[in-house]
Amino acid sequence: MLVLLDVVAGSTAERNLVKSLSEYLTLKDLSVNVAPIEVLEWGEVECFINNISCTAQPPIESSDVSGVLGKDIISSSTSKDPDNVWVTYWLNAKRGASAVIFYDEYPYVRRRRIVVNEIPSYSFRTKIVAKRPAVHVPLSVLPKLKKERYVTISVKTFKRLSQGYVLDITTGDRQPRVAVITHHDRWLTGFRDNGIGVLTILKLAEFLEKSSLPARLISFTAEEFGDPAERSFYWAYGSRVYSKNMLDNSNLDLAIVVDTAYREPLSVDSVGILGLERSLRIVKTSESEIGIGYTDAVSMVDCGIPSIVLHNLNAIKPVYHTDADTYPGRSVEAVIVKLVRAIANIVREYSEKRMDSLYKAYIERIKSVSTPDMRAYIEVTSDPIALSKCLTKYYTTVAIEGTYSDLNTELKLLTYSDIIRGIKAGRKYTILDSDITVSPEEVDHLKKLARTMLEEAIRCSKTGYS
């Protein structure tokens, strides 16, 4: 059923996958909607270094570059955290390198794809620039290239506007309050990222339909890449477009995002809600604080939908976006079964009653880390779910601790109160929305912004956001 190939947003492979998934679910008598979204398809035609096969890094363009390895063309490890590829690429571009050749220290990895950008930005305000070739080679070929010293990189790629597809499934005969989210586009083999999510959605859809439990189950296109505008905030494009234009957010009180969730303990991150651990007790979990910013949950949060992400992002780093991200063994099947049962528990609870206490817990958590004046302001509410949604939408932002030039940083979705508290402790944060790095000297400016966003959240909750 699930073919593990490089499935790029807008590609024939994606179209065929979504078609087969839709036909399978329809045969199971499920309500299925397939929605097209315009995406930018990027693809590699060929990649060679001195006639040795390589892997192009998206979204570089076709080019031919020659030079001395170590002088004109730089070779670099992807490091233990492969997202460092992005930092290494733009730093070397800044220093004048004509190309960068990446390799893995993991000998079993022969191919890896990471989006690169010559501009140090993760914001919507800037556009990706990737003129210099960035390629990946297996560790085994690096000695040969170093011995030859003079190398020629020849890359052919393409970009074109195309159609990606969102798979939207509705179960039960009542208005769903919970959406379960995954994505089906992937680089290279992509079992953990994110074939596992698709498998979970398939099994969950059948389980919920048999139990007459109401939910929206959505598999997005263009989570990895696909924004036609090529914004530097390049991920979660499909969910961003769909959630703003085609999803009725007002009726949803929770989004559960399943992404890289393949082994126990599952890492759990949440925003807008606290206390779901009891409902998830079937599966072993642990907190992580890094899962929101890297997933489609950022789109849900941007629409004011409290979200929880189930993932293993730290565990998959060695095989992240590689040809080694294959079926990890039969133990994963037991995890899927537990995960389906745990999510079904949450859907059942939401179908039976309001879950005010979970949203009150989140509001109390924000109050506990806020300054006294802002803490008193947060108490003005009579509807904890509405206030939590509005705080989710307006009072949270994606940031990294440190600057764009730092290695081993993690994207986190934080409240402004969290950032203020961290800055007071002497830390710096770069806020992705503006690409501004805020230091302890600028905390007063951030306090003013935080107050403005908190006032917007309070206004939102009073006008009946539900």
Description:
The protein is an alpha/beta fold. The chain is 33% helix and 24% strand. It folds into three domains: 12-42 and 161-354, Aminopeptidase (3-Layer(aba) Sandwich); 45-160, Glucose Oxidase, domain 1; 357-462, no CATH class. The strands form three sheets. Strands 1, 2, 4, 8, 9, 10, 11, 12, 13 and 14 form a ten-stranded mixed beta sheet that branches. Helix 11 (416-424) packs antiparallel against helix 12. The mean pLDDT is 93.
Nutshell version of this structure?
The chain has 466 residues and is of the alpha/beta class. The chain contains twelve helices and 18 strands.
Structural features:
Aminopeptidase; 466 residues; Glucose Oxidase, domain 1; 4-stranded mixed beta sheet; alpha/beta; 10-stranded mixed beta sheet
State the helix count: 12
Order of helices and strands: HEEEEEHEEHEEHEHEEEHEHHHHEEHEEH
Shape descriptor reads: globular
Question: For the report, how would you describe the main beta sheet?
Answer: 10 strands, mixed
Q: CATH fold name of the largest domain, please?
A: Aminopeptidase
Helices and strands: which structural class?
alpha/beta
**Count of domain modules:** 3
Low-confidence stretches: none
The fraction of residues in strands falls at 15-25%
